[in-house]
């Protein structure tokens, strides 16, 4: 079997000498939502995080990473980055903004370095899963490494 091509996220982790475990899952059924990914990877949904991209009223982009079962609390998100408001960007703008597509958006290795905020629950786990930068891949990584490599912060930004 051919070797899996590396994504930007994987290359960034490799160049920073960060340990991670690559998980792949079948996408042929079209189910790529966070809960389906957690199930397919055999992981607790609280330990699998999705990456959401917003734009603030200041026109800057902000990245928020939350458990797949949770929703963003936009007011809390705005407070965490010191702006009045944030709104989700349209899916059609995701690729040009981040270099990733819906279902394959990783907080690691985006086209530009954006302010990245992780839900505070991320520190409760020894490892978490986030997108590996392509639909069908997840990387399992220590939260401290993930936060460090993205210059991220943690805050209470989601609700169940």
Automatic annotation (TrEMBL):
SUPFAM superfamilies: YbaK/ProRS associated domain. GO terms for biological process: translation. Gene3D superfamilies: YbaK/aminoacyl-tRNA synthetase-associated domain. Residues 36-148 form the YbaK/aminoacyl-tRNA synthetase-associated domain. It comes from the Bacteria. Keywords: Lyase, Protein biosynthesis. It is an enzyme of class 4 (lyase). This is Cys-tRNA(Pro)/Cys-tRNA(Cys) deacylase. The lineage of its organism: Bacteria, Bacillati, Bacillota, Erysipelotrichia, Erysipelotrichales.
């Amino acid at each position: 079997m051919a070797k899996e091509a590396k994504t930007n996220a994987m290359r960034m982790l490799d160049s920073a000498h960060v340990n991670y475990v690559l998980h792949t899952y079948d996408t042929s059924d079209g189910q790529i939502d966070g809960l389906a990914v957690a199930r397919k990877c055999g992981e607790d949904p609280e330990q699998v995080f999705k990456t959401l991209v917003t734009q603030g009223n200041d026109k800057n982009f902000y990245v928020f990473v939350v458990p797949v079962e949770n929703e963003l609390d936009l007011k809390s998100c705005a407070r965490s980055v010191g702006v009045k408001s944030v709104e989700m960007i349209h899916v059609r703008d995701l690729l040009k903004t981040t270099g990733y597509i819906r279902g394959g958006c990783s907080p690691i290795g985006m086209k530009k370095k954006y302010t990245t905020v992780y839900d505070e629950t991320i520190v409760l786990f020894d490892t978490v899963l986030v997108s590996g930068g392509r639909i069908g891949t997840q990387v399992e990584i220590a939260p401290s490494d993930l936060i460090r490599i993205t210059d991220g912060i943690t805050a209470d930004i989601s609700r169940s």
